[in-house]
Amino acid sequence: MQIYKVGGAVRDRLLGRPVTDIDWVVVGATTEEMLAKGFRPVGADFPVFLHPKSGEEYALARTERKSGRGYGGFTFHASPEVTLEEDLIRRDLTINAMAEDDQQNLTDPYHGQRDLEARLLRHVSPAFAEDPLRVLRVARFAARYAGLGFTVAPETLALMRQLSESGELEALTAERSWKEIARALMEDQPQVFIQVLRECGALKVLMPEVDALFGVPQPEAHHPEIDTGVHTLSVLEQAAQHKQPLTVRWACLLHDLGKGLTPEEEWPRHIAHEHKGLKLIKAVNVRFKAPKDCQELALLVGEYHTHGHRALELKPSTLLELLQSFDVYRRPQRFEEFIAACEMDARGRKGLEQQSYPQADYLRGAATAARSVAVQPLLEKGFKGPELGEAIKRERLKALKAYKDAASA
Q1: Which of 75, 142, 196, 315 has the highest Cβ tally under 10 A?
Q2: For 9-22, what is the mean pLDDT?
Q3: Which fold has domain 119-206?
């Protein structure tokens, strides 16, 4: 029995990056031997075991063969005869197909170290094209390592294009796709994930609503970058630079989908794109079964982001409606995330990345003013039921008028 550290742990050590998860592969062992040593089995499809003390995953060396469609369409074979090289060749990228023993002796049959030095994401074997999930994975790695100068090898991009055109991407489950998308959006440069998907034709298959934004112009006075797709990438880039959470990043990606529906004769204006985009945002949310908080924020940002930008001009009654829509009294965090998404949208414009966004503090102040209205005095005056609701609304409107007057003074 020989045990090797494999994959990401080896790659990141060689890159000088922190190693978080460690995967181990066991060569020359049987399931019975692993159980005898106290390992606990967890793998349903193939033999994976948890170490009795560390809890880390140890997998028996295995080979795989394509047997159906999609990510799960594989038959695995694990036995003591499977070599380390045979186990490594089934992996996606050469930089993920290296192994080292306990002395840090490197096994690198597919030249992963060479590709690390060349800053290339290159597939290990033609079998790469058998697994559609790898299109998303490679785009995610491109987003993670873009800052180090990594790019996708042309021949790998060609295989990704082949997969995108094959219809295999449609076989991916919503859950698997979302897992990759969510991880990619939280990388240092999530805009690269979208760019790579677009370059290989996968964006058109997975998110045609986002793909449709490229080539759609916006008024240059407000958007010096002009192209709506380019703007969306810039907004996503700003969200990452400002360390925004997943909810905000997802909303940033989808906020302008309505502009893809504007007839060409109306370009570069996009009248009512906020409302037109809602059905598209819903469709993308449902397609990937995005978590509820991501879905809700994306829809609210899609509908109200222009309100955010015009906050200083809004009438107190409109401001109150905006606050009610977000339920700022019970869910203050969601409104804070809306403000963040609006600010990223404003900063995601060529040459305006450092511009201040006074709307943010103004909206926070408005929320505080509305929340400051006390309910108890109204109860003491005898208001109840619908009348109480109306009375609270009147007081909040009064508070917002006073707030607006003070801010304007």
Answers
A1: 196
A2: 93
A3: Hydrophobic Seed Protein (1.10.110)
Pick the CATH number of 1-117 from 3.30.460.10, 1.10.287.70, 1.20.1250.10, 3.40.50.1980: 3.30.460.10
pLDDT at 45 over 70: no
Query: What are the structural domain ranges in the chain?
Result: 1-117, 119-206, 372-408
Cα atoms in the Cβ-side hemisphere of radius 13 Å centred on 242: 22
- pLDDT tier, 148 (very low <50, low <70, confident <90, very high otherwise): very high
Q: What is the pLDDT of residue 152?
A: 98
DSSP string for 94-112? GGGS-EE-TT--EE-TT-H
> Other CB atoms closer than 10 Å to residue 106's CB: what's the count?
12
The answer to whether residue 72 scores a pLDDT higher than 90 is: no
Diameter over CA atoms, the chain:
84
- Which pTM does this prediction carry? 0.93
Transcribe 256-275 into DSSP letters.
TGGGGGS-GGGTT--TTHHH
> Across the chain, what does the average pLDDT equal?
94
Does 1-117 match 119-206 in CATH topology? no
- pLDDT recorded at residue 234: 98
Q: Would you place residue 44 in the very low, low, confident or very high pLDDT band (cuts 50, 70, 90)?
A: low
What's the gap between Cα 190 and its chain centre? 7
Task: Please list, in sequence order, all residues whose beta carbon lies within 8 angstroms of the beta carbon of residue 203, skipping any fewer than 6 positions away.
Answer: 194, 197, 210, 211
pLDDT of residue 74: 52
Look at residues 3, 136, 133, 113 and name the one whose alpha carbon lies nearest to residue 59: 3
E-strand ranges in 101-220 read 106-107, 120-121, 151-152
126-155: b or e for each residue (b if 16 or more CB lie within 10 Å)?
Answer: ebbbbbbbbbbbbbbbbbbbbeeebbbbee
The per-residue b/e assignment along 358-392, b for 16 or more CB within 10 angstroms, e otherwise, is: ebbebbebbbebbeebeeeebeeeebeeeeeeebb
From residue 31, give the alpha-carbon distance in Å to each of 23, 25, 44, 49, 58.
18, 13, 13, 9, 11
DSSP-based three-state secondary structure for 316 = helix
